[in-house]
Amino acid sequence: MEIRNILIFFFFLLIMTILFFSQNDLIKSIEKNLSFHLIFEHFIFFSIGVASVLISEYMLKFLNKTILIKNQSENALKINNVSFFSFANIIIKKWKSLLKIIFSLNNYPLIWIFISVYIMIFWHIPVLFDLAVLDNFTHILQHFSFIIVGASSFMAIRNFGESFNLLLLVSLIGMMGMSGVLFSVIEDSIYSMYNIEQHHEAGFYMVLASFFILILILPIYLIKKAMFHIKYSNQKSI
Predict the structure, then answer these.
(1) CA–CA separation, 140 vs 117, rounded Å?
(2) Strand ranges (DSSP E) for the chain?
(3) What angle do CA 90, 93, 99 make, to 5 degrees?
(4) Of 24, 52, 99, 202, whose CB has the highest number of CB atoms within 10 Å?
(5) Confidence class for position 78, pLDDT limits 50, 70, 90
(6) Alpha carbon distance, N-terminus to C-terminus of the chain
(7) In the structure, what pLDDT confidence band is assigned to residue 75 with cuts at 50, 70 and 90?
(8) Contact (CB, 8 A) for 48 and 16
(9) CA atoms within 13 A on the CB side of 82
(10) In this structure, are residues 49 and 16 in contact, taking their beta carbons and an 8 Å threshold?
């Protein structure tokens, strides 16, 4: 089980490396499409953010059980190559400390919402969005920021519970729908690196995505939660 999770972790790192630093013609040509940039690419990096939280939690639990970090007991593991593993221990401890600091923000869950909203607004300012298209380093930074949005949104969802999840779904439907309508009817480009036809196409797909969430994702979520509460009520009454 642990070996499988470690393999998943390294596979995750590989995917992140490819997505961050791949500069082949296919990636560049796909990112010239505004629909891909605004919808599909956001979804990819948001998903990576969610995965990064789950993997970090697993790794933190795993490291807490690791004998390499135990030094307060005489029964601690003795390593032959002391210099190498001493350095490894330092790195592991620093990483553990960083993860603990990050997860300690769960005590202030509003911070996760602030981080997500701020980053999304920041990168969708037209001049910054265009700069990310032109400059490779800025584009990589944008991708990394969207991963943070996915991770922080996931942390907020877990901390605020069902009411927030429902509000998030409704807000997402509303924002995507309104943005899609706006992009569909404008006569001048918002993002100068993309022509007006691409804005209209992106608007169509945003409306389509919001409709998909409305008629499929939202009902599935509500039905799932209703069944959970019914099951819980039945168990409680027994």
Answers:
(1) 19
(2) none
(3) 140
(4) 202
(5) very low
(6) 36
(7) very low
(8) yes
(9) 2
(10) no
Q: How far apart are CA 99 and CA 101, in angstroms?
A: 5
Same domain, 37 and 153: yes
d(CA 155, CA 160) in angstroms, rounded, equals 9
Give the residue among 27, 42, 26, 3 at the shortest CA–CA distance from 206.
42
Q: Is the pLDDT of residue 28 over 70?
A: no
pLDDT, tens only, 38-71:
887 788 888 888 878 877 777 767 666 654 445 4
What residue numbers bound the domain in which 37 lies?
1-70+81-160
Q: Among 187, 206, 205, which residue's Cα sits nearest to residue 196?
A: 187
Which of 45, 12, 186 shows the shortest CA–CA distance to 37?
45
The whole-chain average pLDDT of the chain stands at 76
Integer Cα distance of 53 and 49 in angstroms = 7
Query: Are residues 111 and 26 part of one domain?
Result: yes
Last residue of a domain, one of 142, 160, 178: 160
Count of domains for the chain: 2
**Given 160, 192, 227, which residue is the final one in a domain?**
160
In a shared domain, residues 109 and 175? no
Q: Which of 212, 219, 189 has its CA nearest to residue 201?
A: 189
Q: Is the pLDDT of residue 100 over 90?
A: no
Measured in residues, the chain has a length of: 238
131 and 150 share one domain: yes
Q: DSSP labels for 108-160?
A: STHHHHHHHHHHHHHHTSHHHHHHHHH-HHHHHHHHHHHHHHHHHHHHHHHHH
